[in-house]
Every structure is written in structure tokens, then in C-alpha cells.
Amino acid sequence: MNWNNIIHTIIFLSLTGPGILGNTLIFVRHIYMPALWIEKKPVDLILIHLAFSNIIIICSTGIRDIATVFYFRNFLGDTGCKTVVYLARMARGLSICTTCLLSVVQAITISPRTALWTKLKPQTACQVLPFILVFWIVNVLISSNLLSYIKAGSSLNRSVAATFIGHCYMLQSRHIIKWFFLSLMTLRDVIFQSLMGWSSGSMALHLYKHHKHVLYLYSSRSANNSAPEIRATWRVLTLMTCFLFFYWVDFILSFYTGFSVTHDSSSLNMKTFLELGYASFSPYVLISRDFRVPNVLHAH
Q: Strands, DSSP E only, in 176-216?
């Protein structure tokens, strides 16, 4: 194993282990709440789905990286390659949509009750399910083209033009198909990131007004009454910042490698870090600002 593979393995292990542990804690913690007689809120179901999407990203990307680093030529095959690449792409889309939904719901939650959009606030966890179902349908369809163009290296004809994507290869598709699905992905990202921008701006404005209000009143009682909402808002804003950082750096790197002739090991290692980064770090952003976790464990 050369130094590039060693570095790749270190990056992979340092992200996948903590990432699976953190998302499992978030998943189990919010699944287990009804057993502790704690009311399940719409945000809880959103966090369950976000943790589930992150676990899919980590596992599918991890399997592909293991096969790449250790040169397991026949480890996946065509079916395995199609499965891990498809799941990683689909789960990434689910993560984008779910993060956006979390941001919008939190923005509506803390907005003044006189605002018109407060009527859109889901009151129960069941009201979030239609949104999650739509997210699955959209991302399953957007990623469906991968099933036709992903091949394993062992079954690939060397005379066929293909792009190496880590143990697996992506065949060249017709331009009309390529640009159609690329346009759908771009449209999805633009819509959901625009909603993230609106909700993040709304939350930031609310936090600023709250800060001025507390300074004006200088009353600890008024500050304590709104502390849970403010903590939750800071948590979501920190999560948005984390998401946008990994998304845009990954986008810039992908754009660069897509038009460059050579794909050096440094860019591949960086891309692995960016692909796994948000899925691995986001649960710890949630845990670090969720003060109810110790109380739930204590109650148990």
C-alpha cells in the first residue's frame, strides 16, 4: 500500500467510524423518545430521516472506497457498483432536501405568529411524512440514469470511453440524456438551497432582534423563556453553515476535476473528505447543541 492509499485510508476511517456512531445516536435518540413518554415533534422525524440518509451516504461511499484502496477487483461487480453509486447519489439528494426542510420548519417555528407562513407549520410528525415521500420519489427518479451507465472495472471493455469514479466506471451517455438529468439535479439544488438561504436569513434576523430585545430589557427571565428556541435556531444555523461549506467546496472541486486532464491523488482524497464530511460532522453539530440528550439518558 503506497502513501496515497494510506492517507486515503486514514481520512476514510477518521470519518466513517465517528460518522456512523454520531448518526446512530441521533437516529436511536429520536426513535426512542416515545418510549420515554416524550412527545415526538415534526423536527424529530426530520432528524431521524437526516441521520438515516447520512448513514446511507457513509456506508455506500465507504464500501466503494474500501474496494478502491485495497484493489478488490471483483469485490462489487456490476450490480454492486450500480448499487453503491446509486445509493450514494440518491442519499446525497435526500440529505439536501431534508436539511432544507429542517431549516424551513425551524424558521417557521420561531417566526412571529402573525406571519402568514406560520399556517404552513406542521403540527404533528405525521404531517412531515408527505414531504419525505416526495423527497424519495424526486431523488429516486433524478438518480435513475446511473443504473444504466455504471459498470465495474472488471467487466468494462477497455475500448469504451468511461470515467473512473472509484473502483467503478461511468460510461459516456448521450448529451441530451446527460444534460437532462444534470438540469434536474441543478434545479433541485437551486430550489432547496434558495429555501435554505431564505430560512437561514429569517432565523438570523430573528436572532438579531432577540439579542437587541434582551439587551433592551436586560431581563434574565425573558431570556430564559426563549432559550430552547434560540438554542434550536443556533443549532440549525450551524448545520446550514456546515452543509453549505461542504457542498460548495465539493462543487468547486468537482467542477475543477471534471475539466482537468489529470486526477491526482490529492484531489481524490479531498473529494472523499468532502463527500463524507457533512454526513459525519452534522450529527455532532446536532448533539453539541441538543441539551436534551443527557436528560433523556438520565431519565432512562
A: none
3 state DSSP class of 297 = helix
Cell of 73: 477487483
- C-alpha 152/C-alpha 168 separation (Å) is 5
Q: How many other CB atoms sit within 10 Å of the CB of residue 57?
A: 24
Question: What is d(CA 58, CA 55) in angstroms, rounded to the nearest whole number?
Answer: 5
Report residue 293 as a C-alpha cell: 440528550
> Is 152 in a helix, a strand, or coil?
strand
134-180 confidence digits (pLDDT tens): 999 999 999 888 888 777 765 555 555 556 666 677 777 677 887 88
| Class level of CATH domain 3-153+160-290 | mainly alpha
> Structural domain boundaries of the chain?
3-153+160-290
Phi-psi region of 167 (alpha: psi -120 to 50; beta: other; left: phi over 0): left
